[in-house]
Design a protein that fits this description.
This protein is mainly α and about 160 residues long. It has one domain: Ferritin (Up-down Bundle). Helices cover about 80% and strands about 0% of the residues. Helix 1 packs antiparallel against helix 2, helix 1 packs antiparallel against helix 3 and helix 2 runs parallel beside helix 5. The longest helix has 30 residues. The model has no long low-confidence stretch (mean pLDDT about 100). Bound molecules: MU-OXO-diiron. MU-OXO-diiron (FEO) binds next to helix 1, helix 2 and helix 3.
Length: about 160
């Protein structure tokens, strides 16, 4: 049986995932406005993934006979300095999400809640993958900084996600 503390923390995480989705939808708009159609597509994909994360947590709380209470989604930034700036903030944001997932793991461990630990293992792997993907994109963007052809090709790659 899930503890009240963990149920509340997962419920908060649902809001955090939905906020992430909204942040990435906003980044998708800004990338589009800057002419990076591939990056805009990449962030739209990210928007959908974050909603899937929220749904996974919702399904888990339901499986534990726990009611989900949806909270309002806070405002997000709408404009960034550059495409590199957008991805740099993405990495910083994902690092914060990783810390949140680790916090959920700590609660589950303290509760000796094996079911929750098992469910959270998926998120640990997901965070490794997300951070790694964004680090690679940042490295490419830095390498091609100031090179319009290079940036065009990176954007084309991002369109393939
Ligand atoms: Fe839901 Fe990008 O972590």
């Amino acid at each position: 049986m899930i503890s009240k503390k963990l149920a509340k923390a997962i419920n908060d995480q649902i809001n955090a995932e939905m906020w992430s989705a909204y942040l990435y939808l906003s980044m998708s708009q800004d990338a589009f406005n800057k002419g990076y159609m591939g990056a805009s597509h990449w962030f739209k994909h990210q928007f959908a993934e974050e909603q899937e994360h929220a749904e996974k947590f919702i399904d888990y709380l339901h499986s534990q006979d726990t009611k989900v209470v949806l909270a309002p989604i806070a405002k997000v930034q709408t404009e960034w300095k550059s495409i590199l700036d957008i991805f740099t903030e993405t990495l910083e944001h994902e690092q914060k999400v990783t810390a949140m997932i680790n916090n959920l793991c700590e609660i589950a461990e303290a509760d000796n809640d094996r079911a929750a630990q098992n469910m959270l293992a998926w998120f640990i792997d997901e965070q490794i993958e997300e951070e790694g993907n964004v680090r690679t994109i940042i490295a490419k963007l830095k390498f091609m900084e100031g090179d319009k052809n290079g940036l065009y090709n990176i954007d084309k790659e991002l369109a393939g996600r």
